[in-house]
Amino acid sequence: MSLRPLAREFIPCPKGLHRATYRRLLRAHGRIVAQLERLPYWRTWPVVRKRLQTEFQNRLKRVRRRLGLRVPHPPARRWYRTSEAAAFVGVSSKTLLRWTARGRVPCERSPWGHRQRRYRRRDLVRFVRELRV
């Protein structure tokens, strides 16, 4: 993601936002963009640099959302764990495990653990459609 266009773009004041709040958000926006631009040159561990980059990007998203600008959405997940898949379907995790044992919901065992199950998003969507029909 290139940060140069973000630093130079004109950001209009959203309707209903106080002028002082608008200015504070603009200063924060410029400061965060500058920090993200300087981050590759910081002398720190790569893990720390990655965490700082994530932190700055999250701050930038919050500021841009408050300013009424577009914020990119994260990509849809392709795999879900048991509790997340149960929340996706709208049932308890025990119910989902029972349905999995009966063969109603397909799942795959994770290669690194014998008790971990992973559910594919398209299988869950198909199953939810079958439940609602």
Q: Summed up, what is this model?
A:
The chain is mainly alpha-helical. The chain has six helices and three strands, in the order αααβααββα. The protein has a three-stranded antiparallel β-sheet.
How would you explain this protein's 3D organization?
This protein is mainly α and 133 residues long. The protein contains six helices and three strands. A three-stranded antiparallel sheet has the order 1-3-2. A hairpin with a 7-residue loop joins strand 2 and strand 3. Helix 2 packs antiparallel against helix 3 and helix 4 (82-89) crosses helix 5 (93-102). It starts with a helix and ends with a helix.
Shape: elongated
Tell me the strand percentage band. 5-15%
Q: Tell me the quaternary state.
A: single chain
Number of E-state strands: 3
Structural class based on helices, strands and sheet pairing: mainly alpha
Number of helices: 6
Low-confidence stretches: none
Strand order of the largest sheet: 1-3-2
Sequence-ordered SSE layout with sheet pairings:
Blueprint: H1 4-8, H2 19-38, H3 46-66, E1 79-80, H4 82-89, H5 93-102, E2 108-109, E3 117-120, H6 121-132
Helix pairs in contact: 2-3, 4-5
